[in-house]
Amino acid sequence: MPVSPSPSSPPSQPVRPRRAPRKLLWHRLIFGLWFRPVEVLDEARDRSVWGAAAFLCLLCGALGTLGNDSFWEGWRVGPGQALEAMALADGVLLLASLLLGVATQAIARRLGGNGKFGPTVTLFVVIFWATDLPRLALDACLPGDSYPVRAAAWITSAFGYAFAALLIRGQHHLPTHKAVAAVSVQMLAAVALLKFPPGA
User: Fold this and answer.
1) How far apart are alpha carbons 122 and 34 in whole angstroms?
2) Exposed (0-12), middle (13-18) or buried (19+): which is 134, by Cβ within 10 Å?
């Protein structure tokens, strides 16, 4: 019985190397949150941005200090002491911001999320301070109780809250109501103390 020839296998296609993900530069991350937040957060998923988080904390801490009358009073007495106080405030702010990110990660995990530690913590810090930049810039030039500063505080708080919820929903694959719950306590406490401090 004749044996039929085996069908020839199709020629193998050359395997194209996968492109490495495009580097997410700081300025695209920070300013992109205002102009295309959903796209930027999706691009930043699973990426830790420790450098951008630290930079924003230090920048915003410096801007907040410059808007404080006590800094300028100390500057007139001794510039060195005023700068030391600014550096100390920046360090405390950086630590407090990272703790807020850690708390957000822990709550999201408790609610059933599965996001990674580094991306969640650092992106939370970036979102909080990137959305606060307009208020801090106004506060450095105008009195803290002026109408533009107060209006900017309300608007940036709303944006920060919404972007933080979007972040947790995407990073941890949680429904919207759980994502909002994961960021509520930290965002409300930080906003109340930093943007609307007691006695302001």
Assistant:
1) 17
2) middle
> Where do the H-state alpha helices sit in 2-116?
26-35, 37-43, 50-66, 69-77, 79-110
Residues 6+ apart with CB under 8 A from 75: 82
CB 171, CB 105: distance < 8 Å: no
φ/ψ of 13, rounded to 5, equals -80, 140
pLDDT tens digits, residue range 19-62? 545 566 777 787 888 888 888 888 887 888 898 899 999 898 88
Please tell me the pTM assigned to this model. 0.82
Backbone angles phi, psi at 45, to 5 degrees: -60, 135
64-74 residue pLDDT tens: 888 787 888 88
Q: Let me know: does 65 contact 89? Beta carbons within 8 Å.
A: yes
Q: Quick one: tokens of 120?
A: 């969640």
Cα–Cα distance between 158 and 153 in angstroms, integer?
9
Tokens coding 158: 């709303």
Which residues, at least 6 apart from 26, have a Cβ–Cβ distance to it below 8 Å? 49, 51, 52, 55
In the chain, where the domains are located: 44-194
Report yes or no: 24 and 47 within 8 Å, Cβ to Cβ: yes
